[in-house]
Write a structure and sequence with these properties.
Number of helices: 3
Helix content: 25-40%
Distance between the termini: 22 Å
Shape: elongated
Strand content: 15-25%
Largest sheet: 2 strands, antiparallel
Length: about 100
């Protein structure tokens, strides 16, 4: 059985948040301990990346209600600079990706 996904249009495109990329972006793998028999690794969070990414996602989520999907990408020109910066940065780091 084939299942076709339907995405909602956002500013003339279809975008998702890549949770794997997000996790890798804010995470930092650090060698926890070294044992002769086995090595273990611990996942720690880069707090500055986490907080900035969280803030940018909040901006996109809260200001995204003002997008006129019928105007496509040109409808984004009236949005605040903070939204544009957050959206572009999330796209640049592949956290937001077009499908």
């Amino acid at each position: 059985m084939s299942y076709e996904k339907e995405y909602l249009e956002i500013a003339g495109g279809y975008y998702t948040i890549d949770l794997v990329v997000l996790s890798e972006f804010v995470g930092l793998t650090v060698k926890a301990k070294e044992d002769e028999e086995e090595q273990s690794y611990e996942k720690q969070i880069d707090v500055s990346k986490y907080e900035m990414t969280k803030f940018m996602l909040e901006i996109v989520f809260t200001n995204g209600d003002e997008i006129d999907d019928k105007m496509g990408i040109t409808g984004l020109s009236n949005l605040p600079t903070s939204y544009k910066m957050a959206f572009n940065t999330l796209l640049y780091h592949n956290i937001l990706k077009e499908v």
